[in-house]
Every structure is written in structure tokens, then in C-alpha cells.
Amino acid sequence: MRVTTCFLAAASVFAAGTLTAHARPFNDPRSDRIEAIDADAKFAAEPRDGACYAPVLASTGGALPKNPGTLAVRWTGYANYELVYNGQIVLLDAYFDRGGIYPPLGFTAADVKKADAILIGHGHHDHMADAATVGARTRATVVGAPVTTEKLATQAIDPKQVRTVTGKGGEILQFGKFKVEPILGRHGQPPASVVGPIDEVLKKVTTPPTPEQVAEQARIRQRGTQDRRVIEEGTIAYLITLDNGFRIMYRDSGGRVTEFEKTAMQRAGRVDLGLIAVSAAYLNSATVEQALEHVHTYKPDVYMPAHHDAPFNNLWRATEPLFQAVKDDNPRIVTVSKGYREPTCFNTEHNISRGR
Ligand SMILES: [Zn+2]
Predict the structure, then answer these.
(1) What is the pTM of this model?
(2) How far is the CA of 288 from the centre of ligand 1 (A)?
């Protein structure tokens, strides 16, 4: 079956400026046509919005959605996501130049030339390695926990662009149409009793990296922090609310839910979209348990996993067992996972806060 590049969050037909009743909440993400975008009379002359089909990031020169209500979401490896909405670009994490042991993303950090904000979930290199250079080039505001911005302070970016957040409340940030609430999360801590033996076996059965690749990885690792504070004080979840109420929860590490997250979600209720890292615990029984805690807390309508790809000498984290488990738990949830750079488009006019 052909896997298409687009997905529709809500079939929107605008009639005299109002939404028609009984719009279907979701289309099959594999469908070839996106009613919300392609059938919009305002854009009938150009039936396809390239921003919702082309695997080119807006931040690297690709198209921005034509309809101001369209949100284009692209996953670009690990917990990197690009959000494009109403002429603005927000990057979640920045780890693009990953080295030769990783599958190529199809662009480099140097290609990223436009962004309004970069939200860093935590300061490990595989989340922030390119935040300073991309921030400096784009002039985007870069947001992170204290341990993250301490690292940024040693890198080539203007400190005036950097915002430190603790996630403990009262830190609402506004980037144009994006309202961002940082919430203190917690980094994943997969059990050593599982990870240790599996990593040993993987070393035995995979091709070892060359000395050059080992050196390259060491250099990349230097662009993040290994400070222990990352676990409890340095992992920030971001609750993002668009101007029309559409809500996104972003969490870039598959750790346990914190009281801060529970409190925030008791207030927010649910989110339209969850971009949530898969636990690194290898065993599906453990990754499923963690994913269920996340979806029970954030209650997303649409669940998109993050942090599930891997270098050539490791294993991707399986997403289908998570999808099956969350659907067994809640048959109405929509699960979406695309390839690198493939867009998923949402009509944000339909959202939970408006009573969908
Ligand atoms: Zn990490």
C-alpha cells in the first residue's frame, strides 16, 4: 500500500466562514487526499498544498502551509520535530548532524535557516547538539532547563537568545501564535539489568564502528551535557497551545510522569496531539507500560512517537506494540508514525478546546 505523506486531523469544509457540522474528526492518514487542505475552496486553484506533501522542512526552505489553520508536523529523527503553523516555525530538539553511524536525515544542521523558536527537552547531545549553531543562524529563541542553557552558555550563541526555564510553573512563553508552557518532566532510566545484557549482545552481532566513527561520535557528544541533573531537573515537557486552542504535548524522553505533569494536565485536560518519546527499555512490555502512563496523563487524540530510531549498530524502538496497546486501551486514539521529513498536516480549527 502506498504510504502517503499526509494526514488529516479534521475534514474541514468552510461554508460562509463557518465550519460545517458533522465534519469527520480524522481521515485515514494513508489516504491520498487531504480534504481539509485540498478541498478548501479558498485554495482550489492550487489543489495540493506542497507543505503537506513534500518531504522538505520549512526550516530548510520548504513551503509553509497556505491555510493559516493548517499545522504541518515533521519528525526528523530521535525526538526532533518541526512544527509549522501560521507562518511560524518551531523546532523541538535540535540533533541533526548525528554522524556516519546513523541513517541520514536528508538535510544537515547547516541547511536549517529559518526558525522562530527551538525548544530543547533536555541537554543530552542527542537532543541539543545543534541547538547553538541553528539558533545562531536563525536567530531563534532557544529554550531549555538550567543544565541545558549552562551548556549553551559555553557555545557560540548570543546569550540574549537563550531562555532558561525550570518547568515548575509560571513560565508561560509566547512565540507569536504559539503559547508554550514548560513543565518539569523526568528523564527515562531504563533498567540496567535489561539494557546491559542486550547492549553486550548487540556489540557481538553488529559491525563495530570504525575508529573514525568513534572519534566523530565523541566530538558530537561534546555538544551536549552529561550532567546528572538532566534526570530530575533537566528534562522539560512542553505544553504548546496554538492561538485557536489546539494543544500539543511534547516530551523528548521516555521517563516516568512527574507530579508537575499531572498537575498541568489536570488543568489542561487533554491534548490534540502528543509527541512522546518511546522508552529506551528495549522490551516491549516495559515500553508499553511507559507509553500507557504517558497517554493516560496527556490524553492525546493523536499519538506520534519520538526517539524510536537508532544508529546502525543498535535497534529501533518498536512502535507497533505501543500503537496496539494504546488502541486496546482507547480505540479512538489515532496513531501516526512517518518517515524522516514526511509531513503530517492537521486542520487545527477542529480541536478539543472547541469541543470536538
Ligand atoms: Zn537523554
Answers:
(1) 0.89
(2) 19
